[in-house]
């Protein structure tokens, strides 16, 4: 599955579409040539709103997975979001409604309901109820019919719509039809609504979401677009000459035009993002407001003659103003979110620049053509998994490794592109998810390979060879079994790998063992290749393999701990020279400072007693956040105001106590550093780990989910 992040061209075209809508409502060329303006705003620009519909159908139905309860919840959430936005937009325009006399004599409950359900309380707001109605119809049909049937039904609805819109002239030839349409127009002002207009585009979007397009069809899409676009122009000109239209929103060739355009843009690679998507929404919502504002400005400054009377300048002014206001709104909405309650209790600061630096350093140690697979398991070693992978993905890392299925799905859902390898075991029950999310599964044994194959679905895998780690993988000397693993019909082998157990050790015997493991691996691969089998990309070294330069042959290396600028142990020495910079620092706050009499017990278990009258501060971090409980017994300390302060008493679940008697001025709210630098003092993650008799990996991956991750350049 491709995720939202890939749809840059869709996102960008939506901005263009929003500007086309502004054109429809301002008529940029009317000052110069009415007919040209008609061609542009009455025909060309009409692809804008259907484009919004098809994109909505696409994005929504990507999330529909065929699990009834979950899908219903997805649809409900979507509709709730659109309804909220609609409600907000209605409120925003209320003052303008009042000013424009909306609530005058012909206002009734009936007109209000009709407007809210179909026409919108402002001329552009019909889009929101149309989207909601369209989504309801689409999901109703989706549960019952195949796509061809859905398209036929939506096509018929569209035809009814056409006859109330650009082809209305045909209706007037029949008294009966004319009477029917007159009745219909009592319910809504136009047929370009959620009933007749939106469904076909939403369904086409859903269809594209369910039947992914491939790269080869780009030319076809471009050609299809060009052809239908020209036909739509001709159609628009002809119905106009025939004086058929009652309104000019719906054309027959608008459907293929939008379908091909959307498909074409979908096949382009580009980066969009939430900002640009929100911007579009707000340009759409706010542009009539910008029109009112520009008129007001024109009047107030006496520049109406240019600003309003010249249609093109008017259009440009409205567009610029709408973009500016929308930008401010989006910034305001997003800023409020990030400002709320950050760095309150316990947080890890993640230095993105250091991550990028470490990546470059590690790549420098690899052969030029070799790939680096970023190991992002265990919440990216505690650094925050989707975020770290996103940053790396954006700067070109195309291979990721995770421990388990859920971690892989989380990355895909956040739009991570490229290969995601699951290093661990995945239950056979979840094979369909492996496929759906395009995850690569490690084949951990011959038996597992056979079971995977029996699922009968094409699956990407890497074969794992156990060369002496004694964990996952088929034993290197079971060559018959290994060959069988490669020969399964449904398993598409894209890589082969093994894992080293002592590549961090400078001990001679260990170095020999690592060499032996590597030899065993390449031996297996040679035999695989002799059988005419392609083993795919090879990888055996992880961080310490790279740092000690143990293998030169493999096309890829898996880096975990080193990527985060850390060594597993404080006093490790490695062969290659490299400048690694720690990415993470860990902080909390002083929440209370109190004077405690000599001889008082601190914390659970009364393990610690004050030897003199002391200033004791409580700190807002505990073992549930990853601080080992016995750290005080091991002589653990923290940094506050650039000085060391010992941890006193057992670490609690959410808090710990420190002695700050020797540090003047410590007060509530002070930042406490558990890993990182404060003034001239530093505590490294390696130091903390060795104090607790463990390795750095355990400390950082144990940083709890409550700890906020704050990303800074
Ligand atoms: C965790 C893991 C890695 C990453 O190891 P680092 O020493 O952190 O670089 C690589 N390969 C496998 C199979 C792993 O489980």
UniProtKB/TrEMBL annotation:
Substrate binds at residues 471, 653. The active site is at 377 (proton acceptor), 604 (proton acceptor). Pfam families: Acyl_transf_3, Ala_racemase_C, Ala_racemase_N. The modification N6-(pyridoxal phosphate)lysine is found at residue 377. The keyword Phosphoprotein does not apply. It catalyses: L-alanine = D-alanine. InterPro entries: Acyl_transf_3_dom (IPR002656), Ala_racemase (IPR000821), Ala_racemase/Decarboxylase_C (IPR009006), Ala_racemase_C (IPR011079), Ala_racemase_N (IPR001608), Ala_racemase_pyridoxalP-BS (IPR020622), PLP-binding_barrel (IPR029066). Belongs to the acyltransferase 3 family. Belongs to the alanine racemase family. NCBIfam families: alr, vanT-G-Cterm. It comes from the Bacteria. Residues 583-712 form the Alanine racemase C-terminal domain. Keywords: Isomerase, Membrane, Pyridoxal phosphate, Transmembrane, Transmembrane helix. Its cofactor is pyridoxal 5'-phosphate. Pathway: Amino-acid biosynthesis; D-alanine biosynthesis; D-alanine from L-alanine: step 1/1. Its EC number is 5.1.1.1. This is Alanine racemase. Catalyzes the interconversion of L-alanine and D-alanine. May also act on other amino acids. The chain crosses the membrane at residues 12-32, 38-61, 82-103, 123-142, 149-170, 190-208, 220-238, 250-267, 279-297, 312-333. SMART domains: Ala_racemase_C. It is found in: Membrane.
């Amino acid at each position: 599955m491709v995720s939202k992040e890939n749809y840059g061209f869709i996102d960008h075209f939506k901005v263009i579409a929003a500007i086309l809508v502004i054109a429809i409502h301002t008529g940029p060329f009317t000052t110069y040539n009415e007919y040209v303006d008609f061609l542009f705003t009455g025909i060309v620009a009409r692809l804008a709103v259907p484009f919004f519909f098809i994109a909505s159908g696409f994005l929504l139905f990507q999330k529909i997975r065929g699990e009834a309860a979950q899908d219903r919840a997805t649809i409900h959430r979507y509709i709730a979001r659109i309804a909220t936005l609609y409600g907000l937009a209605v409120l925003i325009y209320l003052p303008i409604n009042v000013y424009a006399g909306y609530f005058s004599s012909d206002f009734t409950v009936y007109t209000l309901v009709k407007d809210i359900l179909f026409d919108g309380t402002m001329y552009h707001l019909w889009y929101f109820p149309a989207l909601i109605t369209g989504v309801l119809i689409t999901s109703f049909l989706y549960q019952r019919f195949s796509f061809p049937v859905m398209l036929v039904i939506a096509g018929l609805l569209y035809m009814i719509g056409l006859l109330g819109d650009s082809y209305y002239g045909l209706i007037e030839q029949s008294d009966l039809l004319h009477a029917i349409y007159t009745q219909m127009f009592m319910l809504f002002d136009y047929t370009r609504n959620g009933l007749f207009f939106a469904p076909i585009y939403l369904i086409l979007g859903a269809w594209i979401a369910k039947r992914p397009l491939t790269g080869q069809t780009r030319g076809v899409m471009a050609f299809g677009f060009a052809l239908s676009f020209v036909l739509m122009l001709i159609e628009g000109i002809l119905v106009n000459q025939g004086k058929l239209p009652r309104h000019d929103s719906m054309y027959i060739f608008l459907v293929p035009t939008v379908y091909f355009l959307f498909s074409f843009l979908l096949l382009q690679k580009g980066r969009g993002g939430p900002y640009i998507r929100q911007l579009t929404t707000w340009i759409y919502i706010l542009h009539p407001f910008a029109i009112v504002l520009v008129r007001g400005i024109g009047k107030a400054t006496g520049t109406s003659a240019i600003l309003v009377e010249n249609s093109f300048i008017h259009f440009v002014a409205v567009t610029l103003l709408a973009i500016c206001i929308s930008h401010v709104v989006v910034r305001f909405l997003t800023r409020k979110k990030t400002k709320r309650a950050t760095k309150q209790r316990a947080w890890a600061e993640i230095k993105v620049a250091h991550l990028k630096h470490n990546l470059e350093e590690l790549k420098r140690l690899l052969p030029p053509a070799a790939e680096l697979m970023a190991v992002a398991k265990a919440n990216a070693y505690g650094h925050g998994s989707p975020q770290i992978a996103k940053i790396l993905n954006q700067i070109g890392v195309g291979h990721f490794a995770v421990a388990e299925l859920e971690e892989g799905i989380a990355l895909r859902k956040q739009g991570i592109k490229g290969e995601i390898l699951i290093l661990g075991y995945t239950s056979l029950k979840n094979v369909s998810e492996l496929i759906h999310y395009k995850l690569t599964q490690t084949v951990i044994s011959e038996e597992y390979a056979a079971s995977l194959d029996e699922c009968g679905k094409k699956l990407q895998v890497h074969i794992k060879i156990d060369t002496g780690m004694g964990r996952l993988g088929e034993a290197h000397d079971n060559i018959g079994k290994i060959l069988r693993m490669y020969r399964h019909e449904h398993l598409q082998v894209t890589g082969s790998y093994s894992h080293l157990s002592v590549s961090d050790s400078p001990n001679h015997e260990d170095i020999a063992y690592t060499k032996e493991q590597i030899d065993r691996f390449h031996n297996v691969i040679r035999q695989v290749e002799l059988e005419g089998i392609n083993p795919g990309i090879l990888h055996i070294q992880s961080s310490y393999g790279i740092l000690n330069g143990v293998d030169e042959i493999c096309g890829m290396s898996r880096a975990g701990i080193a990527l985060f600028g850390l060594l597993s142990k404080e006093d490790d020495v490695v062969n290659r020279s490299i400048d690694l910079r720690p990415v993470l620092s860990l902080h909390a706050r002083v929440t209370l400072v109190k004077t405690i009499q000599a001889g008082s017990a601190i914390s659970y278990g009364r393990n610690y007693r004050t030897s003199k009258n002391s200033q004791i501060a409580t700190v807002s971090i505990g073992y549930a956040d990853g601080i080992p409980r016995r750290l005080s017994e091991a002589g653990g300390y923290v940094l506050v105001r650039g000085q060391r302060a010992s941890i006193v008493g057992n670490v609690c679940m959410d808090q710990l106590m420190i002695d700050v008697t020797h540090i003047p001025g410590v007060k509530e709210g002070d930042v406490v550093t558990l890993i990182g630098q404060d003034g001239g003092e530093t505590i490294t993650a390696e130091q903390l780990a060795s104090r607790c008799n463990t390795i750095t990996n355990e400390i950082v991956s144990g940083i709890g989910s409550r700890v906020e991750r704050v990303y800074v350049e």
